[in-house]
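I would like you to sit down with the record closing this message with an eye to the fold:
=====
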Amino acid sequence: MSGLLNGKNAVIYGGGGAIGAAVARVFVREGARVFIAGRTQAKLDAVARDIAAMGGAVETAQVDVLDQEAVEKHADEIAATAGGIDIALNAVSVMHDQGTLLADLSVEEFMRPIDGFLQGLFITSKAVARHMGGERPGVILTLSEPGSKLAVGGILGHGVSAAGKEAFTRLLAAELAPSNIRVIGIRPHAVVDAPAAGSYTKDLFKPLAAGAGQSVQELLEDGSMAQSTLLKRLPTLSEVAETAAFLASDRAGSITGTITNLTAGTLTD
């Protein structure tokens, strides 16, 4: 059966997380050969078992995206094994503060998401770009958040890092276009059905939920976050993963240098 990504080689950094794993499943379903990387081998193995139970397969590697030498070695190994890299997604999460205002925010907490997200994105993009493009079009997908455009208090580091990722996406798209490599951002809101609502998502939004007198799940599903969207709901993992597969496919071959808005109408541009 023909899939959107038949014959494509894809690497997903942060493949053990909720979004990375969801995208890996859809990429495999659509015919790609998928490599997932992350810092925690047990999480990668769990994703691999889940995909195997569905009749697919992924290849795993324990890699820290902030270790440039390790990332480049891993990308070189994939290219040597598979013959090149066609698609890359950085879905690595960096735990950071949300809710603390400037007066009480330390410079370390302000810089944590900026340093973590942007360094990881730079390192992974540089590593894979060397193995992309030419006769085989390449695609680099990035992830950001609505904080890139929201004017609200308490998300200084988060918002600046998100805006930085979106600027990085547009600028890199211009740089790599002559090499036949597209660079596209995906901007979902908090994902309501992420299993990581028991880990990263839960820890990230716990202070905001506590301030509203709600559980994290109540905040996401029924509270202000969902009600602030035009659709009165948050995006699902499936919607994010299916969008990533389309954008990575040749059907989206004229899309580059832009941010795909999956905020359910929290933002309208």
The mean pLDDT is 90. The longest strand covers residues 181-188. The CA atoms of residues 110 and 157 lie 4 Å apart.
